[in-house]
Amino acid sequence: QVQFVESGGGLVRPGGALRLSCAVFGRSVRLYGVAWYRRAPQKQRELVARLTTNDATTYPDSVKGRFTISKDNAKNTIYLEMTNLNPDDSAVYYCTITGSNVWGQGTQVTVSS
């Protein structure tokens, strides 16, 4: 069974940056599309970045130009680079692969002055 271990979250000031990492176990990220989602308090989980096996990326307008998804096949790890963060980006961030209904514990991102 696939497992995800997210890390890299924390408290950052508005305008700051973070790099999230997701170690994947049980599946090779080389063979799957990958994605990051987030869930803020009182809100549903939402997609923030997707990377297909053909290296096509998708971002919602809310993060486009600020977030970048990537993966390292050798390390079996997914990354999310986040820049120019604002308080609306505060949430628990989760990674996943295409077809999985398993979620890790996520990593908390808090943007506050």
Task: Map the helices and strands.
Layout: E1 3-7, E2 10-12, E3 18-25, E4 34-39, E5 46-51, E6 57-58, E7 67-72, E8 77-82, E9 91-97, E10 107-111
Parallel strand pairs: 2-10
Antiparallel strand pairs: 1-3, 3-8, 4-5, 4-9, 5-6, 7-8, 9-10
Protein model, in words:
With 113 residues, the chain is mainly beta. Helix content is 0%, strand content 48%. It contains no helices and ten strands. The protein has strands spanning 3-7, 10-12, 18-25, 34-39, 46-51, 57-58, 67-72, 77-82, 91-97, 107-111. The protein has a six-stranded mixed sheet with strand order 2-10-9-4-5-6, with no helix packed on it. A four-stranded antiparallel sheet has the order 1-3-8-7, with no helix packed on it. A hairpin with a 5-residue loop joins strand 5 (46-51) and strand 6 (57-58). It is globular.
State the helix count.
0
Q: Which residue ranges are poorly predicted, with pLDDT under 50 across at least 5 consecutive positions? A: none
The coarse silhouette is globular
H-E string? EEEEEEEEEE
In what range is the share of β-strand residues?
Answer: over 45%
Structural class: mainly beta
Tell me the major beta sheet.
6 strands, mixed
- Terminal CA distance reads 40 Å
Total beta-strand segments: 10
**Lateral strand order in the biggest sheet:** 2-10-9-4-5-6
Radius of gyration: 13 Å
The chain-level mean pLDDT equals 97
Helix content: under 10%
Give a quick rundown of the structure.
With 113 residues, the protein is mostly beta strands.
